[in-house]
Specification:
about 350 residues; alpha/beta; Arginase, Chain A; 8-stranded parallel β-sheet; two-stranded antiparallel ribbon; 11 helices; 10 strands; about 40% helix; binds zinc ion
Length: about 350
């Protein structure tokens, strides 16, 4: 199975930052580019592509004029805070946000135009952004803006957005809650855990009922539980939905070394998830598969995971096999110490009550 892959990058992405002490660090994007260059994996199957910046018009597809103006003004002064202090504004943040959205839109465009089958950018994946408010380090929702571009310019009707960030993709879900755009989110869920939404019973409403799929996971969920759950849920939902493209928010913060989330995944899960989804893209939508970044508060884990994903999806591996080995975890993941019974009940609910609604 093959296809052409674009790795989308632009140094402007580094402007998407909240200060040197903030957990969200855009240096991760540069580190992936450097790693891919060092491994020598760019070839005829995998090519680097410089992303365009998004325009204010792109933002208006999803966001209110008021939010756009507030971010623009605060970014010019380089001070202030969005989202009750979580998301401070540094000078140039607006331009950084345009770069983040632009990277994802560039990926969607190059796939829709048939220039590439797959595209990956480590930027974007800003799934907490709502139409009228920035939240959780996320200013503008690049995933939703890219989906709107595909609907408007290319007539796409069936777009699947899969989100594996450790946190629920609440902004993306809310934007499409009453539409037949399929959103699937696997995330840690429980009392007090951000953002608090994403119960299995959140399934969409009106026209969109059954098109919001949520897989709430307990703390410390390990590879052995995550991978079969992912495969089962995503395969069944995509089989029913028959997407024209898959957009994949590939946040890395459910990795076991990431202290913001406290899940138990290793690089084994991320490689497997990329492999499964890549296959599903070839099965259902001629390989059209766009991968973005997302959360990830260990820069090294993010660098390794996203580099592995680019190799897995493109089929471009370093000549020296040691190169892949260096990206993988050697340690064991955390112990699974939750009530599995409760978790299986949630999964049964999904298969009995939600997925059958997809037409
Ligand atoms: Zn996250």
């Amino acid at each position: 199975m093959c296809g052409n892959t674009a790795f989308i990058y632009n140094d402007e992405l580094l402007k998407y930052q909240f200060g040197s002490e903030h957990p969200y660090q855009p240096i991760r994007f540069r580190l992936v580019m450097d790693t891919l260059l060092e491994m020598g994996v760019f070839d005829h199957l995998l090519r680097p592509l410089r992303s365009e910046l998004a325009t204010e018009e792109d933002l208006r597809e999803v966001h209110t004029e008021q939010l756009i103006n507030i971010v623009k003004e605060m970014s010019q002064i380089g001070t202030g805070c969005l989202d009750m202090g979580d998301t401070p504004v540094c000078e140039g943040l607006f331009e950084g946000a345009l770069a983040a959205v632009g990277a994802t839109v560039t990926g969607a465009e190059c796939i829709a135009r048939g220039e590439f089958d797959h595209a990956m950018t480590p930027g974007g994946g800003l799934h907490h952004a709502h139409p009228d408010k920035a939240a959780g380090f996320n200013i503008f929702n690049d995933l939703a803006i890219a989906a709107r571009r595909l609907q408007r310019n290319y007539g796409y009707e069936r777009i699947a957005i899969i989100d594996i960030d450790g946190h629920h993709g609440d902004g993306t879900q809310s934007i499409f809650y009453d539409e037949k755009i399929l959103t699937i989110s696997l995330h840690r869920y429980g009392p007090g855990f951000y953002p608090g939404t994403g119960a299995v019973t959140d399934m969409g409403e009106g026209e969109g009922k059954g098109y919001s799929i949520n897989v709430p996971l307990p703390r410390c969920t390990p590879d052995e539980v995550y991978v079969p759950t992912y495969e089962k849920v995503v395969s069944a939902a995509l089989e029913a939905y028959r997407p024209e493209i898959i957009i994949h928010q590939f946040g890395t913060d459910a990795h076991y070394t990431d202290h913001m989330v406290g899940m138990g995944l290793t690089t084994r899960t991320y490689e497997k998830v990329a492999e499964i989804t890549h296959h599903l893209a070839h099965d259902h939508c001629d390989g059209r598969y766009l991968v973005t970044g997302g959360g990830g508060y260990s820069a090294d884990a993010s660098r390794r995971i996203w580099s592995l994903v680019v190799c897995t999806v493109s089929g471009s591996f370093p000549l020296n096999p040691e190169g892949m080995h260096l990206l993988r975890d050697s340690g064991l993941n955390r112990k699974w110490k939750v009530q599995q019974e409760e978790f299986h009940k949630r999964l049964d609910y999904l298969f009995d009550e939600v997925i059958p609604l997809i037409k």
